[in-house]
């Protein structure tokens, strides 16, 4: 091979020669996922924090306040809260990174046996180097990417589990190069000096290309010779491997995304708004500075003799310049730093609510939900796309034999539908697996009475497979299956009296109804994804030759003898039923062969097997010849156990207009059947498109054909209307794409086509994808759709996807806690996702939006009074309020009420949030806080400031006390305006609060009381005597608030501020109520009237379309290993036994987002209340937000 042309940067590794390998400066085996260390933490963290525009803004204000000529406020009013915010954030970031360091240290300090100077020595993983030879023992993790050199198993075989890489828990086989397979002794390995030349580090999990040079010969290396970091050695006593890639160069780490700093969309919007507000602040400062220049030139110059300018001011322009900066400081409270402190406190409270939620606690695993970050809670209420792993996330990866059809007779019903107890097989069969569950005793009776078809059915299952068996003690059998499907089928045969005991390359030994029988294994016609079937040809002790075949019904039923037509029709009906239930189906058949037929075919098979070119095609043609004219036996139905509540969760999330994509490393058939099981795919869908092209051009053509077909079908369903890709009418589509096709679809020139086609589908399933491809799909949607994404997974292969999404959720399942450690939120069951999003996410978004709207309102109402006052004080940067009121306004008087609203507020209870998923849509559309809502808030604040300034100014300018003394003084005006402001904002938050708790009452009315208490204390004689230079408003509060005209002024200002708000809200509620208003109304009605009796039954029914339920998680090549004898050995360990429990409830009917758009509103709602829940949840024609009067007969719109 010409390596320079094949790989731009080839890698050369020489065994047992660290000096040679170190000159290439390969990466060590130490990994680091943390962001900081002790030296870099402070500068890097501060740099990240000052990327927040607000932090930079407050630092700038702090610098201004340190200049005495322009500052009228003390510097500590800014530096204390700024330091507090920076410190809290730094502590949180340091804590998160500490756990990353802890995880890294745990991995780096694992022990590994390394061959050093001829002996095995224990070394930490971090000290392993490229070129070292490592010994692995059973159940150990692979420390680095290794070239398998030898194994304790025959022929250099070893078995690995790759769950950390691709999520699959079934075992895979790896084999060493034949020339090194005998180097099992450390002494022999110590003298091994072979050199490997291979490709550079990359993220391709399924590909490796290289050459081993040793003793003047070269040997090709493939992925079958490699053990990748993250794999676990299974059922193999020990093996030796040569380190090729270490640490960050390993394929596992190459597929791990970088740790990213995540911000919510509200954070990004707030950064923009802060810039706008700063621009607004500069504009106000410029206006007031110009006013100061004009006033000083036209008016102030007349007072120079007894009111001169303070040095260094010597002209009106310099006075205006200083006035500008003074007003920037005074008016900076439009965005006080307390906003950011409050936001962090609210987020922390929301995180604790998630942690404390008992309804998200799993008693089986004793695991509670955990918010591992506090910065993303409100984004949980805005998710539009969910990217989910399959194995361990949607499913439990447990296969159970549930139903079967034998000679047209169906068997197998669940306990809940029959009332029968689980069958006890032990009296009938002492070799039965005690963990096997089956409830239909008719099948057992059929076997007992000697029904030929039933016995032949289970005989086929006991013979036609590639399972290995180990008998630890008499009758204690352990099966090692290459796929969980096979394990479930062989276990079923075992329990019904046909027990697979052992095999050799040429025989299969079974126990049939208590009698030991040994069959001669003549041939295995191996499985592959094209054939979708496997067969064995065996000779019975009586000399009868028979072919047994199992495979997909779509291919096997075509190869039956014509006399099977009636049985085929009946069995097809059963297969339809099983597929409709989401079960994984296989059809079973057999064919008797004469001695002449076998001899003739065997000769053809031998020729094809020895062919040097097109061997696979030749073998497939030979297999096709013999697998004809078979006799149908029946069909099996296996359930890949879904996690509890998965179908219901997916249905509810779909009703909330959340699109769910499944990204899995599993094969297509498995993923599609799980899609049907969890109701992502339904037979009611218009069409399911499968993209499987192997070239760029073929993938492009398939995507275009799918898109054209979608448009064509949508026009047909909508009566010929013109529709674009974004609105395909009522037609529903799904897209299934394989990993090799996805690799082409993700290329720059095709990604837009893929996105437009995929996003027009209701469901998307990506099969055989690598961890990096998962992350690339997430990034693609983030780039083109500008939507909030959530990724959920349970294994290390999901980490890059979890890190790439806006929100990462880890499930603490059976694949370790790697996904949890990389996630933002974690829990133990997929079903908790609907509560996380529809309850906690929606509430967090609602609370944060209400908090921000009110916060900006109250601060504009507070600050803009200074602006109006500037026109009446000669633009001198004089403040309206006492400086202590300015300091305490955001810290004491108004902080706790808005915090209580931001932490505890609800519009509807949690049950209603789950009952009406459409309530989630405002967050997706960003309706509750956006630029428009922001301008409405500041407009209301500016309006309130106008009222709060000019009403007291107009009234007090001519008012007098009862003694005739005028009230038109600065201190009386300041106290009146401040009191009116506190009362107005307190009444406003009382109106904004939708859910009152004890905390809300205490904080709202307590803050109001604290204002009067503190104000009277600060204006008291006692403090004035102690600090005469600090408290200038002595006695002003008492004298002002004793005047009736002052209270009338406060009442009038409050009414003018609040009454228009009340009027607007009543009109809006009456004329254009939102869905949440409707739900609240129904809740009030339910409290006064009896509860609704009916909740509605199941909706819809499955169509009668024909769909194969075939799914067989099997790989090609095992048959050849068995017949060659290479995988025969004396001892092996077991796979886990499989238990099952059926979960069959779901919601079939899903609504589209267009259901609530106004054009669907042209009809009357005659009687709403008795069926409101049904209408709100399921119909697509009711204009919920157009209801004028709930419960009355009105015409919408």
From TrEMBL:
Q: Which Pfam families match?
A: Cation_ATPase, PhoLip_ATPase_C, PhoLip_ATPase_N
What GO molecular functions are on record for this protein? ATP binding; ATP hydrolysis activity; magnesium ion binding; phosphatidylcholine flippase activity
EC class (word) = translocase
**Cofactor(s) this protein requires:** Mg(2+)
Return the InterPro entries for the record. Answer: ATPase_P-typ_cyto_dom_N, ATPase_P-typ_P_site, ATPase_P-typ_TM_dom_sf, ATPase_P-typ_transduc_dom_A_sf, HAD-like_sf, HAD_sf, P-type_ATPase_IV, P-type_ATPase_N
Q: Where is the P-type ATPase C-terminal domain?
A: 820-1073
Transmembrane stretches in the record are: 57-86, 273-295, 315-341, 851-872, 884-904, 934-955, 970-991, 1003-1024, 1044-1067
User: Where is it located?
Assistant: Endomembrane system; Membrane
Q: What is this protein called?
A: Phospholipid-transporting ATPase
Q: Which organism is it from?
A: Salarias fasciatus
């Amino acid at each position: 091979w010409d390596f320079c042309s094949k790989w731009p940067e080839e890698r050369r590794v020489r065994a047992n020669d660290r000096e040679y390998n170190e000159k290439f400066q390969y990466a060590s085996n130490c990994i680091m996922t943390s962001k900081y260390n002790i030296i870099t933490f402070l500068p890097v963290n501060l740099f990240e924090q000052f990327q927040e525009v607000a932090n930079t803004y407050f630092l700038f204000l702090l610098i201004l306040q340190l200049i005495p000529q322009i500052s009228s406020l003390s510097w500590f009013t800014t530096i204390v809260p700024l330091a507090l915010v920076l410190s809290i954030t730094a502590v949180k970031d340091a804590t998160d990174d500490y756990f990353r360091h802890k995880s890294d240290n745990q991995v780096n300090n694992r022990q590994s046996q390394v061959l050093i100077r001829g002996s095995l020595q224990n070394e930490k993983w971090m000290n392993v180097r490229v070129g070292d030879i490592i010994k692995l023992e059973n159940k150990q993790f692979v420390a680095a990417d290794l070239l398998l050199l030898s194994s304790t198993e025959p022929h250099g075989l070893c078995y690995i589990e790759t769950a950390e890489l691709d999520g699959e828990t079934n075992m895979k086989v790896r084999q060493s190069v034949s020339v090194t397979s005998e180097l099992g002794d450390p002494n022999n390995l110590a003298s091994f000096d072979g050199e490997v030349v291979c490709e550079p580090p990359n993220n391709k999990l399924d590909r490796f290309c290289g050459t081993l040079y040793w003793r003047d010969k070269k040997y090709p290396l493939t992925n079958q010779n490699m053990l990748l970091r993250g794999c676990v050695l299974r059922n193999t006593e020990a093996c030796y491997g040569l380190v090729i890639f270490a640490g960050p160069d390993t394929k596992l780490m190459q597929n791990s995304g970088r740790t990213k700093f995540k911000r919510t969309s509200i954070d990004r919007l707030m950064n923009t708004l802060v810039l706008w507000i700063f621009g607004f602040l500069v504009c106000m400062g410029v206006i007031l500075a110009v006013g100061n220049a004009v006033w000083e030139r036209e008016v102030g110059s007349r007072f120079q003799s007894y009111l001169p300018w303070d040095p260094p001011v010597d002209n009106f322009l310099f006075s205006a310049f200083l006035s500008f900066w003074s007003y920037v400081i005074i008016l900076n409270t439009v965005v006080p730093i307390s906003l950011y402190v409050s936001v962090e406190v609210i987020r922390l409270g929301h995180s604790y609510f998630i942690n404390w939620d008992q309804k998200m606690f799993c008693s089986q695993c004793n695991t509670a939900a955990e918010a591992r970050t506090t910065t993303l809670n409100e984004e949980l209420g805005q998710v539009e796309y969910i990217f989910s792993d399959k194995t361990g996330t949607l499913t439990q990866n447990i296969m159970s034999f549930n139903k079967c059809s034998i000679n047209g007779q169906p068997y197998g019903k669940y306990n809940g539908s029959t009332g029968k107890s689980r069958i006890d097989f032990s009296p009938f069969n002492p070799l039965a697996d005690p963990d096997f569950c089956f409830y239909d005793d008719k099948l057992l009776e059929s076997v007992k009475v000697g029904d030929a078809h039933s016995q032949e059915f289970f005989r086929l299952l006991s013979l036609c497979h590639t399972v290995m068996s180990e008998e630890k003690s008499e009758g204690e059998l352990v099966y090692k299956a290459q796929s969980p499907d096979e394990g479930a089928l062989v276990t079923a045969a075992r329990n019904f009296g046909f027990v697979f005991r052992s095999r050799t390359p040429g025989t299969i030994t079974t126990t049939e109804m208590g009698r030991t029988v040994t069959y001669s294994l003549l041939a295995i016609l191996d499985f592959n994804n094209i054939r979708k079937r496997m067969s064995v040809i065996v000779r019975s002790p009586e000399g009868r030759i028979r072919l047994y075949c199992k495979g997909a019904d779509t291919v096997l039923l075509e190869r039956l003898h014509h006399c099977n037509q009636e049985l085929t029709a009946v069995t097809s009906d059963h297969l339809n039923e099983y597929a409709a239930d989401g079960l994984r189906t296989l059809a079973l058949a057999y064919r008797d062969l004469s001695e002449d037929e076998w001899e003739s075919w065997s000769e053809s098979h031998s020729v094809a097997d020895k062919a040097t070119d097109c061997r696979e095609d030749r073998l497939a043609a030979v297999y096709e010849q013999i697998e004809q004219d078979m006799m149908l036996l029946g069909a099996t139905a296996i359930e890949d156990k879904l996690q509890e509540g998965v179908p219901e969760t997916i249905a509810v999330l779909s009703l909330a207009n959340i699109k769910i994509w499944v990204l899995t490393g599993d094969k297509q058939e498995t993923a599609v059947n799980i899609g049907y099981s969890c109701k992502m795919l339904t037979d009611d869908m218009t069409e399911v498109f499968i993209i499987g092209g192997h070239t760029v051009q073929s993938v492009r053509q398939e995507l275009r054909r799918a898109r054209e077909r979608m448009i064509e079908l949508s026009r047909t369903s909508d009566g010929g209307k013109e529709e674009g890709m974004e609105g395909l009418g009522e037609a529903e589509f799904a897209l299934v794409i394989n990993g090799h096709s996805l690799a082409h679809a993700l290329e720059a020139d095709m990604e837009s086509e893929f996105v437009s086609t995929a996003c027009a589908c209701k469901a998307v399933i990506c099969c055989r994808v690598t961890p990096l491809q998962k992350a690339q799909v997430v990034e693609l949607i983030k780039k083109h759709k500008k939507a909030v994404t959530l990724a959920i997974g349970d294994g290390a292969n999901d980490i890059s996807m979890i890190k790439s999404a806006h929100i990462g959720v880890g499930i603490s399942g059976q694949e370790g806690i790697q996904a949890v450690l990389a996630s933002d939120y974690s829990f133990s069951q997929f079903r908790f996702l609907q509560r996380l999003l529809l309850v906690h996410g929606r509430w967090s978004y609602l609370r944060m939006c209400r908090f921000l709207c009110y916060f900006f309102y109250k601060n504009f109402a507070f600050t803009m009074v200074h602006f109006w006052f500037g026109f009446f004080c000669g633009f001198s940067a004089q403040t309206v309020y006492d400086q202590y009121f300015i300091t305490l306004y955001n810290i004491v008087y108004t902080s706790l009420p808005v915090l209580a609203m931001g932490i505890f507020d609800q519009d509807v209870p949690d049950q209603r949030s789950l009952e009406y998923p459409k309530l989630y849509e405002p967050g997706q559309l960003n309706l509750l806080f956006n630029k428009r809502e922001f301008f409405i808030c500041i407009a209301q604040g500016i309006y309130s400031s106008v009222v709060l300034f000019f009403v007291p100014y107009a009234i007090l300018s001519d008012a007098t006390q009862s003694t005739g003394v005028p009230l038109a003084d600065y201190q009386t005006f300041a106290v009146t305006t401040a009191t009116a402001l506190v009362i107005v904002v307190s009444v406003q938050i009382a109106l904004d609060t939708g859910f009152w708790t004890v905390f809300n009452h205490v904080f709202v009315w307590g803050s109001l009381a604290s204002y009067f208490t503190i104000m009277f204390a600060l204006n008291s004689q006692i403090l004035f005597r102690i600090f005469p230079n600090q408290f200038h408003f002595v006695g002003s509060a008492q004298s002002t608030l004793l005047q009736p005209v002052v209270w009338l002024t406060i009442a009038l200002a409050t009414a003018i501020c609040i009454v228009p708000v009340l009027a607007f809200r009543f009109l809006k509620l009456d004329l254009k109520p939102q869905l949440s208003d409707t739900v609240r109304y129904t809740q009030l009605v339910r409290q006064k009237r009896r509860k609704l009796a009916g909740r509605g039954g199941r909706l819809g029914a499955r169509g009668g379309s024909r769909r194969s339920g075939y799914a067989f998680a099997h790989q090609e090549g095992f048959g050849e290993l068995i017949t060659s004898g290479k995988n025969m050995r004396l001892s092996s360990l077991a796979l886990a036994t499989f238990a099952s429990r059926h979960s069959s409830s779901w919601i079939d009917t899903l609504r589209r987002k267009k259901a609530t758009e106004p054009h669907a509103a042209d009809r009357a709602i005659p009687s709403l209340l008795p069926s409101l829940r049904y209408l709100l949840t399921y119909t697509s024609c009711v204009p919920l937000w157009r209801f004028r009067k709930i419960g009355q007969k009105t015409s919408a719109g």
